[in-house]
């Protein structure tokens, strides 16, 4: 492709090419980031769920062996069965820890080495018990503590030292595996940060290129064209109008110059016929009026071109949407798809930014705490969610307390909780939401429960994390920040929030709010009968 052919591209084609290139680069970065993130998650899972617990288990195994040796010595000295309890407890703990470590081992060569080391440790432990511990126990029980002490002194610590050495090797190998996994996880994190930086630089670079491209092909040529039109409007009808901008602007300049030539020709004819008969004078008057009207049009065009066309230069982010609305169906299918991807990404980024702004403003932009009646808050929530709830939804609450807080934030809290209950409903089942409260001498505990699809216990700690989604965007809309906002609002009011894992159907979320100062604690409010509010 020659440089000359690129220069002849239209503005639309250049913008599409730029967006396509940036999209491809970001897509490649996204794929690499996804692969890296998946590997990092696997390593973090190994670190948290395997190597860390395995190391702790190996350390506890050493403690179990020390307890066994301590129990044998204590039994040999005292001869009482009570002093033998550390030995018997150590045996039980040893078996449990060996089973735990074995269950965490996989099929890799490293795991095979750890499994072999564990077998050596068990063999050394069995050997120590066979040659030292069991003979001492038998001697003490048969002949008394003196006989047991004699065997302990005769055995010295050789067998137990061998056991310690085998255990130390096992712990060293486990630690080495853990260090390898931790190093790999750190490297993956560094790679992800690098990819994010590269992606940001690509976006910034694309933005700069787009601004420069628009300035060179639209901004400055429009200003020059407006100046030429203004000169023509001032009477320089022989001034040729040209443009060095995009092909579209060059075509526009050619059309304006054709109009200029036509006006100039008409004026020449009028001047030549001025000395002719009256009808020629009338014709000249009409031509003059036409020229005045044309001049006004040219001045208006100059104003629009120099003022209104500057706005797109200050709103680079809106060009993707403008391209989609203006050129949808005019390009090839892939271009439309890329533009749709860009528009969707911009819209999702805007929603994420708006949600982040709302999240960051909690606690910063405050109007102060006042007494808030939660019954009135739920009336407002019901009104807000009425279009989403539909005719079959049922939202009910018992008499709720008055608390200290910010009413807008508490309204947002219930909108998110009740809105989630309506969104994550079961198919062909009318949503039912119940809100109740109970209190003690320190706080109110408020429960929001529904009959929806529920939340698995394994996700109990993840649902309140910002942007944490348990379902794909295709299944349920949203950014995954709703429960994070709820958690921050509750914590801002001095409370706490948790997921009730004892329910068998739907979702049950509890949160607490401090009692209103000076108000005595009433009897716990019964959930039934409920004050039914049906939407």
Molecular structure report:
- The C terminus is likely disordered.
- The two termini are 64 Å apart.
- The chain contains 13 helices and 8 strands.
- The protein folds into 3 domains: 192 residues, Four Helix Bundle (Hemerythrin (Met), subunit A) (Up-down Bundle), CATH 1.20.120; 43 residues, no CATH class; 165 residues, Heat Shock Protein 90.
- The chain has 535 residues and is of the alpha+beta class.
- Helix 2 crosses helix 5, helix 4 packs antiparallel against helix 6 and helix 6 runs antiparallel to helix 8.
Question: What is the gist of this entry?
Answer:
The chain is an alpha+beta fold and 535 residues long. The chain has helices at 3-7, 11-78, 85-104, 109-143, 145-155, 158-233, 247-272, 278-307, 319-327, 333-361, 374-389, 407-423, 482-492, and strands at 370-373, 394-397, 402-405, 432-439, 443-450, 497-499, 508-514, 531-534.
């Amino acid at each position: 492709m020659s440089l000359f052919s690129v220069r002849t591209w239209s503005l639309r084609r250049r913008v599409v090419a730029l967006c396509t290139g940036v999209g491809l680069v970001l897509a490649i970065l996204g794929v690499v980031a996804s692969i890296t993130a998946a590997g990092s998650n696997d390593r973090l899972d190994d670190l948290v769920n395997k190597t860390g617990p395995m190391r702790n288990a190996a350390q506890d195994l050493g403690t179990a062996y020390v307890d066994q040796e301590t129990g044998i010595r204590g039994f040999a000295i005292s001869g009482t069965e009570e002093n033998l309890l550390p030995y018997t407890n150590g045996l039980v703990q040893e078996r449990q820890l060996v089973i735990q470590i074995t269950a965490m081992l996989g099929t890799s060569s490293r795991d095979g080495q750890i499994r072999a080391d564990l077998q050596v440790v068990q063999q050394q432990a069995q050997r120590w018990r066979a040659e030292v511990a069991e003979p001492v126990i038998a001697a003490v029980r048969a002949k008394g503590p003196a006989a047991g002490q004699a065997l302990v002194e005769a055995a010295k610590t050789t067998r137990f030292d061998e056991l310690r050495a085998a255990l130390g090797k096992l712990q060293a190998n486990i630690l080495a595996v853990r260090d390898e996994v931790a190093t790999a996880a750190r490297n993956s994190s560094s790679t992800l940060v690098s990819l994010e930086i590269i992606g940001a630089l690509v976006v910034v670079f694309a933005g700069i290129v787009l601004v420069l491209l628009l300035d060179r092909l639209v901004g400055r040529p429009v200003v020059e064209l407006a100046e030429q039109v203004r000169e023509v409007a001032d009477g320089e009808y022989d001034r040729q109008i040209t443009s060095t901008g995009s092909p579209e602007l060059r075509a526009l300049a050619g059309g304006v110059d054709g109009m200029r030539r036509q006006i100039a020709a008409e004026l020449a004819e009028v001047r030549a016929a001025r000395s002719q008969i009256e009808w020629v004078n009338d014709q000249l008057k009409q031509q003059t009026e036409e020229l005045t009207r044309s001049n006004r049009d040219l001045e208006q065009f100059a104003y629009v071109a120099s003022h209104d066309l500057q706005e797109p230069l200050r709103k680079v982010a809106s060009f993707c949407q403008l391209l989609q609305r203006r050129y949808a169906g005019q390009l090839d299918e892939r271009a439309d798809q890329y533009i749709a991807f860009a528009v969707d990404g911009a819209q999702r980024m805007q929603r994420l930014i708006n949600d982040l702004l709302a999240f960051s403003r909690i606690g910063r932009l405050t109007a102060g705490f006042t007494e808030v009646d939660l019954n009135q808050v739920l009336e407002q929530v019901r009104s807000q969610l009425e279009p989403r709830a539909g005719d079959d939804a049922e939202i009910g609450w018992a008499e709720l307390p008055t608390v200290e807080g910010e009413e807008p934030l508490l309204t947002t809290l219930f909108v998110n909780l009740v809105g989630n209950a309506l969104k994550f409903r079961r198919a062909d089942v009318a949503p039912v939401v119940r809100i109740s409260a109970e209190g003690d001498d320190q706080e109110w505990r408020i429960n929001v429960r529904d009959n929806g699809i529920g939340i698995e216990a394994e996700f109990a700690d993840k649902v309140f994390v910002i942007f944490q989604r348990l379902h794909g965007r295709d299944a349920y809309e949203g950014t995954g920040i709703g429960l994070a906002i709820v958690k921050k609002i509750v914590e801002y009011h001095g409370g706490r929030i948790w997921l009730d894992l004892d329910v068998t159907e739907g979702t049950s979320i509890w949160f607490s709010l401090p009692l209103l100062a000076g108000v005595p604690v009433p009897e716990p409010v019964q959930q039934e009968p409920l004050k039914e509010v049906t939407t």
